[in-house]
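Components:
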Amino acid sequence: WKPACFFQAMQQTATHHAASWGYDFDTLLAAGQVWVLSRLRIRFDDFPTPNETAVIRTWPKGISQRVFFLRDFEFRRPDGRSLAVATSAWLLIDPAARRILRPQTLGVDVPDNGGLTALAEPLEKIAMPDDLPEALAVQAGYSAVDMMGHVNNARYVEWVCDTIPFDRYRSGRLRRLQINYLNETRPGERLLLRAGEHDGQWLVYGQNLDSSQRAFEAVAAF
Amino acid sequence: WKPACFFQAMQQTATHHAASWGYDFDTLLAAGQVWVLSRLRIRFDDFPTPNETAVIRTWPKGISQRVFFLRDFEFRRPDGRSLAVATSAWLLIDPAARRILRPQTLGVDVPDNGGLTALAEPLEKIAMPDDLPEALAVQAGYSAVDMMGHVNNARYVEWVCDTIPFDRYRSGRLRRLQINYLNETRPGERLLLRAGEHDGQWLVYGQNLDSSQRAFEAVAAF
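Structure:
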């Protein structure tokens, strides 16, 4: 498993869990609503080998700052040993108007599970210098874009990981990753990723060269 | 499913099948042998939706041109309708010496299954002009490289698909794809993909800018 595998699994598990209480993707879309991942922070405890089984649990953790649906995740081996814990914040969006909806628009109270927590850390803005060196140019080609015409969350994680020199992976395991998704990247658009080390952390942001917006910010620690 | 999903599934299924008769990856590697995909040709009949189940069958189809292990694949829906059929050619390689081994080195006769065929088409060299326009620059970053330090077969397919304009996907479904893997791409190396239309087919090749070798050639038809 690589870091992006955890993101793919979280996306699928969250979708599956929401569908299990009636809020599947098609039902939401018919009501003019979609959930989009806004921020995610994960602590990696171990990386499974390709054929290992991971047991994933996920649960809603209430509403934050009026607009964020919080959701936590835990990944364990079948024997209970931790693989990773994560916390995430999702926005409810009107995809036609491209605006953020209040959580009440969903029409159901999402349980807060009494504050049950997998990763008890806040999902803050990332302090990001503007002068990081150029690291990688990427394009949102066909392979990066999902059915909604958006770059898949896990693909951004691949891009973040691709800015990190191979030496770094050889000398130590990735321990933590936070990524804040700021502005969507549309099909065909190009991003310039800038990255560098600050205070022992690897900082990355992606500048959309076609829209001039910042697409995402991320911080990784080894 | 996108085209690369079929390639990921084929790789896993082939590995699983070889392991089922004792030739798992670790056993082969301990004997100084690995199988690498050399050529693959696939006809797509339909693309499953994200949660659909595909039943995959694969079988060896004998030896060709003294060095190629042939292997066919078929993808079906549970009700039997075809999703895709493919034929592939694999080389047995000594990873330390980086040279091709004769199939006899494997030490077992791989059954030829009486010529049972999923896609009855030869795996030929691809006629490729040298003057295709530049389409995409990519780098073999961390996300593209597997445990062996090679770019994953499916990632090349993503790159091929990323050279094709979005308009083409909107106006018609991808019907056929052949990819010939020519020279390995090592971690960090950059490829320049050149692509264009010739006689109704989409041709792509990847030039390794660091080694000056051609990494792969591919042909797609809609």
